[in-house]
Amino acid sequence: MDEGMKNMSKILLKIDGKDVEAREGMTILEAAQSAGIDIPTLCHHEKLEPYGACRLCNVEVEMRGGTKLVAACLYPVEQQLTVRTRSEKVDRIRKMILQLLLAHAPNSRELQRLGNEYGADKDRFEKESSFCINCGLCVRYCAEVKKLNAVGFVSRGATREISFVPEIAARECDQCKECFPLCPTEALQAAYVLAEALASFSPSFGLESKA
Amino acid sequence: MDIERVDRIIDKHRGEARALIQILLEIQSDNRWLPKEALTRVSERLQVPMTRVQHIATFYKAFSTVPKGRHEVHVCMGTACHVRGAQRVLDKVQDATGIQPGETDSDLRFSLEIVNCLGCCALGPVMEIDGKTHGRMSPAATVEALNDYE
Ligand code: SF4
Ligand code: FES
Fold it and tell me: Does A8 share its domain with A74?
């Protein structure tokens, strides 16, 4: 962010009572990481633009006498900001998010590990195993890092899911598959949807991309 | 849908990526649905990734990525129509056309959708065919109305 301004002015803030020095344009998450303070994330990846989908990284910041919940992976640091990465409120929200996500991907080890940490009951909500939790890591990695756009989202709301473009997938995915290990639900979904796309792909159908 | 028609619509918007939704809307109204070939063409000519074209084409309800029938039937299931017997009208339409809401018959004659209000509750139960309102429908009148559309 704000690279263009080349404004390297120092920002001093407090995270969990610790004085942290950050650069302007950094997010709370980056500042916390640089100070060795852990904030859990699911949809964040250093190589990708901030996305703010999972809200697991939410933290409390002090503001005008009260506190406000913000997504640490999106929120830029401010001079004298006071941040709490754990609090009753933050933990309760993380627990709820994890319970909701576990209903979709009950076998995800990453979700289970986080779930244990926040006391989430994986059976709190009826299972609706869609596997994908729409974190968008695979989609964004393919677009932003690989610049291939082989996988994208289709549909909206509760029926939103990932979908591979068969023409591109047939050409590119076999030698890449770099999105698989990014998936917080352990690649199951991407691998499955890719296989499905390739199975449906007959080169005679549709216009072959000339790219 | 032939590709020239798609191209003509794209040309009208000078192939500009920001006209993506407008272009899709025009293809949709020209062809009643968005075939994969058309989406691929739009993606290539506008230089917009296919993933993005697909996301938009599946996001808005105005778009269909499966073939649509020649006639669009909307049965109102809003509260007023519901209490006036919309369910019986819908059942009859389903019987007569052999399709469920969201489906299209194999002759591509009808596509059926249910809606939540057509804004003319006093006429309930209401059915709309190709935008024309048919009010105070009885199951029998429903079949008659459908027969007018080939
Ligand atoms: S398949 Fe996995 S990585 Fe891709 S959006 Fe879904 S949860 Fe995220
Ligand atoms: S990591 Fe911040 S919203 Fe997902």
Answer: yes
